[in-house]
Amino acid sequence: MNSGNEAYWKQNYDVATDAFHQVTLDKPNYSTAFYNLGTALYKNGRYQQAASAFQNAILNSNVPNEAAVYYNLGNVQFQLRDLKAAIESYKHSLRLNPNDVDAKHNLALALELLNSQEQNITQNMEGTQKQETENGRPQQLSNTETQQLLEQLGNKESIKREKILKQKLNTGYRREKDW
């Protein structure tokens, strides 16, 4: 743990990660090692692994600063764009430590971002539905969809021409020669 902490403070997060990982293997019930591993992984941008480390820290019964673990888990989930999970983690952190200003700030930020995403999705859906009812088709088509539609129209046009030609032949209509 000491070598991991020393490497972490020197911002050598790879060495810190290796040291903390070794401690978690040696002492699988040592929640502080999982917490430290999670923070080192977070600093390395390895968010999925950091989330797993924080969750392992929470699963252990002797978590010294559980509020901090939930706070950092929320940060990782925020980075992974799992806003609903991040919100729940921040709320849990605040239940354990209601005075955590950073957790309050991050919770408000996550809620605001989730709300704006939901509004954008709703507006996009409404706009698409409105566009479809006005035009009877989506606003923009991909190149592949456009090609397919043109081929279908071409095929239908060919079929109609054949029908008209057969009708003219069956009715006896002939064009007069103009020479």
Set out the fold topology.
Elements: H1 2-9, H2 13-26, H3 31-43, H4 47-59, H5 66-79, H6 83-96, H7 101-135, H8 143-171
Helix pairs in contact: 1-2, 2-3, 3-4, 3-5, 4-5, 5-6, 6-7
Task: Sum up the structure in keywords.
179 residues, mainly alpha, 8 helices, 78% helix, elongated
How would you describe this protein?
There is one protein chain. The protein has 179 residues and is mostly helical. 78% of the residues lie in helices and 0% in strands. It has 8 helices and no strands. It is elongated, with a radius of gyration of 32 Å. The model has no long low-confidence stretch (mean pLDDT 82).
Briefly say what this structure is.
The chain has 179 residues and is mainly α.
Estimate the mean pLDDT confidence: 82
N- to C-terminal distance: 104 Å
Radius of gyration over C-alpha positions, nearest whole angstrom: 32 Å
Main sheet attributes: strand count, strand direction, barrel closure: none
Write down the secondary-structure element order: HHHHHHHH
Number of strands: 0
Give the amount of beta strand, in percent: under 5%
Q: Helix count? A: 8
Secondary structural class:
mainly alpha
Outline the low-pLDDT stretches: none
